[in-house]
Specification:
3 domains; alpha/beta; seven-stranded mixed β-sheet; 290 residues; two-stranded antiparallel sheet; DNA-binding; Arc Repressor Mutant, subunit A; 24% strand
Length: 290
């Protein structure tokens, strides 16, 4: 299979319409149909179910599309690496990072790095830990800034910093005046938590298990600010990172540090063990490690 035809197949898999795919690709419908016939002949089976003029990607086609995207990503990464190797001060870094790092850590590091390497560009993706590590694994991101540490059999890891975790409670809560507590002190309270499988939720689950807790979860959020807003509104309590110095917090909210040994969040760089980062990505990683 030719790489160009694989790209055509991916577009066809996304549109499931020969006319629309041909228009998007700028090729004729007969040319696209012949390319699909060659791909299906190589695969040994139809990859779409045909219904009138519509195509529907079938189970075989979904497998082909998954591997086609991965192959294309690998070739694109190879071309990017070659380009970057010819000029180490240029190229692009495909960076994925946690939602919770989008308001301070990542923008600040990008600002500082661009002063050092203004010729390096960035393609950015923000999301939960399981999504950004999946992008690294699929070859859609060069590196990720994530937490907690992902599977060491699959991913290389370089720790950047550690955040302590605390219990966010409404002002006036019985624990609001405490200087430090174990999480079990809130065993009778309802909790606001992130959804599974968010990284902070994994850490929270481990802390609950450590203290033998099975609390009532009144709401599962997708972002930490939503959790804190609901806590301030009196819906429950939540495990969140300790606020950074100088950051203004909701006056209706109190953050009580946790004494549990595991009450910390390690934030680090994630790489695919089987793929060397491009020189610009490696340069950015070294910059962050410094």
């Amino acid at each position: 299979m030719h790489l160009e035809e694989l790209r055509w197949f991916v577009v066809l898999a996304e549109t499931e319409h020969v006319t629309d795919a041909a228009a998007e690709l700028g090729v004729s419908q007969p040319t696209l149909s012949r390319a699909l016939a060659r791909i299906e002949a190589d695969a040994g089976t139809p990859l779409f179910d045909r219904s009138n003029r519509r195509l529907r990607l079938n189970a075989y086609g979904r497998i082909m599309a998954e591997h086609a995207r991965r192959s294309i990503a690998e070739i694109d990464a190879a071309v990017a690496r070659i380009t970057a190797l010819r000029d180490p001060d240029s190229g692009r870094v495909r960076l994925a990072f946690l939602h919770s790092l989008a308001t301070w850590y990542v923008p600040e590091q990008l600002r500082r790095f661009r002063q050092e390497a203004p010729g390096v560009g960035f393609d950015l993706f923000q999301g939960p830990a399981h999504e950004i590590t999946a992008r690294v694994r699929a070859g859609d991101a060069d590196i990720a800034i994530s937490s907690p540490r992902p599977d060491p059999a699959v991913f290389a890891w370089r720790r950047l910093y550690v955040e302590r975790l605390c219990l966010a409670v409404p002002r006036g809560h019985r624990l609001a005046g405490r200087s430090r507590i174990r999480l079990s002190a809130a065993s009778g309270d309802p909790f606001v938590a992130l959804e599974q499988p968010f990284g902070l939720r994994q850490l929270t689950d481990e802390l609950w298990a450590e203290d033998g807790m099975a609390p009532e979860i009144v709401f599962e959020a997708t972002e930490i600010p939503t959790m804190e807003g609901l806590v301030a509104a009196g819906f429950g309590v939540a495990v969140v990172p300790v606020p950074r110095e100088g950051v203004e917090t909701d006056a209706k909210l109190v953050h009580v540090p946790l004494s549990n040994a595991g009450a910390k969040r390690e934030v680090g760089l994630v790489f695919d063990r089987e793929r060397d980062p491009t020189p610009p990505a490696a340069r950015f990683a070294e910059f962050l490690a410094r």
